[in-house]
Amino acid sequence: MIEKFFRLREQGTTIRTEITAGATTFLTMAYIVVIQPLVLSGAMFGIETGLDFGAVMTATCISAALATVIMALYAKYPIVQAPGMGENFFFVLSALPAAAAAGFTNNWEVALGVVFISGILFLLISLAGLRKALINAISPSMKNGMAVGIGLFIAFLGLQNAGLIISAASIAEGPGGPVLVPGTLVKMNAQFASIDLIIFLCGLIMTAVLHVRKVRGSILLGIAGATLLTMAARLLLQLFPDLAGHAVFAGSKLGTMFRFADAVFSAPPSLAPTFFKMDLAGALTLQMVPIIVIFLFMDTFDTIGTLVGVSEQAGLMKDGELPRASRAMVSDAVGTVIGACLGTSTVTSFIESAAGVEQGGRTGLTSLTAAMLFLLTLFISPLIMMIGSYPVITAPALVIVGSMMMRNVVKIQWTDYSEAVPAFLTILVMPLANSVADGLAMGFIAYPLVKVLSGRRRDTSWLMIGLGLVLILYFVFVRGSAG
Asked: Has residue 384 got a pLDDT over 80?
């Protein structure tokens, strides 16, 4: 029955491969189970938002599972969904202050209402087929550029999580107070003796070697190996506390972030503090309209970028078009609506889905496996939180996946600058702006402008031209004014 429903042979995959791929994707994005409640509760920023940590964690797992099940059974793509990074920061740092500035004392409930409404709008647009039309209007060079950009974004994220790439920005006292000293924004961490980098490099080499030798589940095995190495290093630090002052352990993430699980099983935290607590009346006020628009744009472009990029990587594009694109979009939109009802920010497709695709995942069985693991996480959260609390463990997987996605760069029409320049801008901006959505927006603005101004208007559609103009207005009047 599984074979018939997902057409595994037709996609050149097996049940074992799909399950391995699903587990791989889940482990590379399991950090969201920990990060999402840390962000939404305000604990990450040392503030109190009013959102309950445990309720947000439960909402995260359930919304991710439900949205991914819809993607698995309705759209049948190996794409996993969960509350998105970027949207969650915007929720806390922009939506909550905007609601408070508008005079609302229940600002987090208003913000959840904003997410709910943006999800409904997202759903209506998806059902109308507008986003499917947009995907089909994107040129092959742009589609491959999106895949490469996401690959660089993932790899850059992995290098940052590992501590190999660190901030180079410095602050100095100026006449009017602290000022940012001009210079390089990031640099490489030369402290290769750090335990964080030792674990990362060992995990990276282990994963790469297994991948080169074509060992099934190489990325998953790499994560397992990095976890065991981390546990051994942490145990050594506990047995010999004096090592904390040694250069290898001094200032490491291992000592401050990683903790052994206190148990294997635990009861899920109650969902009651956030369940159906959104304030729709407050969200529909004039002051909150720009926030709704921003959430809608962020979700739309994050979804399109991930869907096209991962599908291109998996070879699921047919003649430049993505079959069942509208179904995938509906899955994403319904996930956002469900997430708001449960008490979490925008649910979107995760770029880490590329990790499962690289392990051979080609059908909805991959995402169904990940969905089941999200539900299981509710009962084994101590173990998942142990792995997710130390991002160095999954950093090698992100770098390997990013390197694999770079192969799409040869499919860009580099000899046609009207195709190459917008694709290049998309690739460049995604990692540097730390946003898939912003990278896509830059490419979608540049593409019609270059085409039209170079006298090649017929090479682009009116939909792309209209979108470019809308994006310019969005950045100038909406994004700029909302901060």
From this structure: no
